[in-house]
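Ticket reopened. Same input as before:
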Amino acid sequence: MDIREFKDKLFEAARQSGIADIELFYSSGSSESVYVYNGNVEKFNSSSCGGIGTRGLYNGVMGYYYSEVTDEKDIPLIIDALIQNAGITDSGDEEFIFEGSDKYEALSLYNDELDAFTVEDKIDAALKMEKTALEYDSRIKSVTGSQVVSGRSEKYIANSKGLELSEKSNYIMAYIELIAEENGSTKEMGEIWAGTSAANLKPADIAAKAAERALRALGGSPVGSGSKNIILENRVFADILECFSGSFFAENVQKGFSMLKGRLGEIIASDKVSIADDPLLEDGFNSTAFDSEGVASYNKTVVDHGVLKTYLYNLKSAHKDGVSSTGNGFKGSFKGRVSTDTTNFYLKAGSLSPEQLLERLGDGLFITSVAGLHSGANGITGDFSLAADGFLVEKGRIIRPVEQITIASNFFELLKNVEETADDLYFSVSGVGSPSVLVKNISVSGL
Amino acid sequence: MLDKTKACNILDAALSTGADFAEIFLENCVKNSVTVINGRVDGALSGRDCGLGLRLICGDKAVYAYTNDIEYNNLMCMASDAAKAVKSEGHCIIRDFCVQDYRGGVSKASVMPDTVKKKTVADMLKSACAAASAYMDTITQTCMGYMDEVQDVCIINSEGLWAKDRRIRTRASVSAVASNESEKQTGYFGPGAMCGHEFYDRIDLDEIAREAARSADTMLRAVPCPSGRMDVVMDNGFGGVIFHEACGHGLEITAVSKNASVFAGKLGQKIASEKVTAIDDGTIEGSWGSVNIDDEGVPARKKILIENGILKSYMSDRFNGARAGYGVTGSSRRQSYKFMPVARMTNTYIAPGSDRCEDIIADTKYGLYARYMGGGSVNPASGEFNFAVSEAYIIRNGKICEPVRGATLIGKGADVLMNIDMVGDNLKLAEGMCGAESGSIPVCVGQPMLRVRNMTVGGRG
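Engineering reply: fixed in the latest deploy. New output:
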């Protein structure tokens, strides 16, 4: 049924049941993806899905419920669940239904031109990626996946205080995964691209990049163990930053799950480190005009030349600290409870070119990929120990590929040990960005 | 929700352009979760997932469409649209449906989750928080989670399958953080089962919470792990994550059929030390990773993957298995109707050996004793894996010595399998979630204590 009609009925039922305030969050989306293998379409997927997440204040406590079914018949069940879930919650934290911000930016996140990008266009692009990769070099043994997806989504939020907002966005994404092999050395490499305009999709470039990255990594071997200076390539540092981004969330600070407690206004990093969260970034993967609580988005500097300027807040954690929400109250999907998340979160670029950064390194390692961030990293303390691949660098020049080593350090020490940042800012598809970064004294385990 | 006529019409529409096979996966899943932080209920959430996935197979091509608008007219539209992606001469005849009800089986509940008061759950978690907090004054945070889900599925295909199943699962997550001025360490366990609330009568959550607290406190006082090559003794239970990551994923037919696994083409060959026998068994009653039937309706079975070092079997599904000329093994799984099913693991473990645990330690001159493992990941093409050790000790002259923190193990699966030289007799399974192509699914890993020679250990010491 129509979501606005559903909202009116739900809010009326809530009012009659003693739920003081109620919020309805609805999101829906659809996508089509094409997978190519060996010159043919191997898989074609299409989806269309949506659902509601609702929360209500009952006796001053927030209860939550979600459903993929938007059916008027379920309203009594929803009301009952909200009341029951509120009934056992005793965290003592005050939660809020938001009356709305004064002003919302008008962002253009939906590109009509993308609607004209057909399934056939996707097949062509995926085939082109696969063909380019296979013809790139005889050492490219196979392309295990070549995929192009486009999708669109819409979010809608309304509450009993009169707030009503909606936003539409769309995207296109391409992904290739291939295997290079030479003299018993095997490397699998993936390359992903995402954007909001089909004109920027360059299938051959994506394939060539994946192939080049796989080929140059062939024939790697470990280096000796010890403490080394290293460059973390932009995409690697972006992944590490994403992994530890929760340390900047006020709710984690308040619950004792962050080492940044009590550090506001203090130096927590080298003066080369400035970190921003910019929800209004043009063409950002996570750009949005409002968060999942309806708070208006704005760009903010989190770390300014090494000094911690702010935590990231939602309504609940902001109230606890006596400040305003930074508009970072997000749900993972309509199903989740509101917690905190970053939008377009990135380490700002420096002025050195990647080549100059290598020169500045002199002798050390250039790390181009890490594995194990979901397991080999302690999100609270910042400790990490990760499998890594990259290159041995001597006198500013790349000597040979390196594999089967681990790098171990601590995120907060890493921030302090940043010597230089390059000018090659790169955003991962999860919206976290970084330039390549030169850091001192990382513990390396190899031979 | 669907009667035979409607199902038949949907399959008919899906097959109208000549596909060889069509399948409906209909799901309704009710979930509840509660989180208690530092003794207070931080939040309680409940909800319902409901939708339908439609798969078409035409030779070596698959089409998948899903929606949660399950009105019949919308489903008919979706089926016709999906069919447009196929152009073939085939004329698949839909066979008469034979309804099979698999409910019960390995997934039984004597106490259904929806009959349990939320307050009972909250009180149980609060008690665990208290137990962990009281263990030692270094314990500064406790976080206990609870979830239950009842997933009802109906799998219908053009070959006449009409299979109903119900998967009832529950799981707790127990974590305790120990802190001093500069350090925080976490101890974590996630016990779960395929059954109802009676699970919590069989386990002692308070005791598990105290063990998490002990582990966190021990690691708080541990020195950073030294790095380099050394022998590694991995204890039972979640230690089996090594086999899961380093080898299990490489035995899934998706990777094998695209020659993207180091184990492709190696059936009948020796790929591991003769000490190693490895099994994937989806039929263990009440086990977290079990299924009555897989997500394309094939009954689960017990498979010997490796027998005394010889590769015996892969894990396969209909679509990817066909590419490799390999039959199904009851391994096809998906997180929900939003995913096309592929071959995945269920309960996967290394079988017990004949070595005694005390002998394994006593026989190790210098090495790492990994008491509890964290998670990890693998690249199936090269077999390169990494995983974290959450509680570890140095072994010196056959004795377990000081605790060390922050250890990571890396290596290549094929090497590790060959380098296992002792296998203990204390097999235990442990629960986890496995993320891959068809989403995040419940699995068990497992092993007895075992020793791997000469692994690369990463750490900051």
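Chain B is about 20% helix and 40% strand. The radius of gyration of chain B is 24 Å. Please confirm and we'll close it.
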